[in-house]
Amino acid sequence: MLGWFYRGLTSRRVTTRYPIVPESMPEGFRARPVVHPERLDPEASWEPYARACLPGAIQVTEEELTLDLGRCICCGLCAQVPGGAFTMEPDFELAVRNCQDLVTVVRRG
Amino acid sequence: MNARAIEERLGRAPERARSGELWLRLRPEQLVYIVPDLVEGGGARFVTEFAAELSERFAIYVILDVGDDYLVLEAPLEAERFSSLVVRLPAAEWPEREIRDLFGLTPAAHPNPTRLVLPEGWPEGLYPMRKSFPREREVELAPPERSGPRMHEPVEGDGIFHMPYGPIRSGIFESAQFVVDTPGEKILGLHLNMFFKHRGMEKIFEGVSLEQAPLVAERVSGTDSFAQSLAFCQAVERALEIEVPPRALHLRIVFAELERIYNHVDHIAKHCEGASLNVANARFSILKERVLRLNAALTGSRYLRGVNQVGGLRQDLADPGVLLDELSSLEKDFGAETRLLKRTDSFLDRIITAGPLSREDAVAYGAVGPIARGSGVDLDSRRDHPYAAYPELAFAVATAADGDADARFNVRTEEIHNAFDLIRQAVDRMPEGSISAEVPVPEPGSRALGWAEGARGEEMYFVRFGEKGLLDRVKVRTASFVNWPLFPRTIEGQILTDFVFMEQSFALSQGGCDG
Q: Among A33, B182, B250, B432, which lies 20 to 30 A Cα-Cα from B275?
């Protein structure tokens, strides 16, 4: 027991000062899918993005594309679809007060 | 036992489907004597039993571990019933009840033919794994008819009461209910009620594209994500004869062993928490967090998700230097903490003799993983049925004889040391080159087994492709599903105070069990 006592005393603090001091995630950390509307080809079908999404977080109709972060599993398959309208960003602070705020809608034109 | 010995025993030669996998087609009535004969007489290990719906009829499959190979016995059924193996093979109890629930095939002469995985209130005569049951269908549950927990053959007598514990418990335990028969402190009987959150994972696989299916496998059990996706991908790669590039085979070792390390370290931290060693708990938890952060830095996912894909990997290891530096620091710190823990009497007093599992029970129930190895069963699919780059690497399989929580603790600490060594070997020998192979269009009817030794033991998958090359049947048999039925056997005669150690020393996944 005494061994653990000394070990506890000599440990440095590992708790960080988050959220006062922001916490950065490594490059390539898949936390937030971001849709870049300017890279969505207005002439082409957006269906491939919806097809790439297993949980149905990306839904596509003729007029619009919807991204619902509440359904996303951060797999990053949307970021591999040719066209590159989606990227995965390391920003993990996804919490919002209203679940509608998790939804992004991009309309054609 | 090899293919020749099986032929001598059965009078028929199994067909070699591919390396490590034999197949034999039987009539259903033959299973009842052939399977127990291969297990009791031939020393085969019962892996699992499951059903599939072929065109127009059902079939029962039994997977056996016959030494160097897995043997799959296939028995197409004429009717919607089959003879139960349970009387001679206790390990078949849960698989056969699962078949009954999900496919509506009756295991004749099963000693406990009651509902296992479907919730109470699920309508009779509705079998969700049948093809006639659409994946999207929603079912309204009837309100449960009786009150009180479900118990099979409870211990009765003066002063004995039945104490339900769960499914909602403190902390972040998953949903499971333990009903304890006890006169006060001693545990006389334990009933497991599980499958509260059965998600129908096997049904979810059907029709999913091969690009997305590994993501489904990862969600079978969150803390075994890499082992699950590895077993699944290897099953598909074997079925489609995909040759995975050597670099990917080595990278898979790195990630599989990182997963083993963080799981085993977490298990030790939980043991320390149970023994109220708060400093030790904190220090092992820090080590676990460091491994998760290393995972995140290497792959972008703390739990190694989205890394495996059919044919190889989605991501390469950019800079092995980061990995090797952190690895040697982790190994040094882990060694120091473990040495101190192994000298801490208040810890050892709690785990030595707690939750003993006899070798006989471990063998009879087909236990896998550290639970089997802690009871002296020398079994590890990385060595016995080698896959990925394991055949090229040198490692010892850790075992212990005593079968108690201490034995399982020792097996896990040794496995952590071995895992550090395996990762270094894999990095040292890692060839250059591509990390993924092309995936051909699946032939209808092609099928194979795939497996991986996860932190909890052998994770076994069976895949079969149907028309249009879509996944037609995926059988998921996790290590947790096999090992849970053994838990009551370790606990009878023990005391309630030690319950937490016994449960933690099993360290099973509820999600993986529920499926």
A: B182
Residues within 8 A of B (CB atoms), A 63-102 only: 73-77, 88
Q: Give the CATH number, domain containing residue A80.
A: 3.30.70.3270
Nearest to A30 among B216, B277, B301 (CB): B301
What is d(CA B26, CA B50) in angstroms, rounded to the nearest whole number? 15
Taking 50 as the pLDDT cut, the residues of chain B under it are none
pLDDT digits (tens, 9 = 90+) for A6-34: 988 888 888 889 999 999 899 899 999 99
ipTM of predicted complex: 0.95
Candidates B206, B209, B276, B279: best to mutate against A (most CBs of A within 10 A) is: B279
Strand bridging mode A64-68 / A103-107: antiparallel
Predicted pLDDT at B170: 72
For chain B, the maximum distance between any two Cα atoms, rounded to a whole number of angstroms, is 71
- Structural domains of chain B in order of their starting residue, each with its CATH number: 3-108 (3.30.460.80), 161-193 (no CATH), 204-485+501-514 (1.10.645.10)
Q: What is the 3-state secondary structure (H, E, C) of chain A?
A: CHHHHHHHHHCCCCCCCCCCCCCCCCCCCCCEEEECHHHCCCCCCCHHHHHHCCCCCEEECCCEEEEEHHHCCCCCHHHHCCCCCEEEECCCCCCCCCHHHHEEEEECC
Predicted pLDDT of residue B172: 65
* Mean pLDDT value across residues A50-78: 96
Place of tokens 């109220």: B276
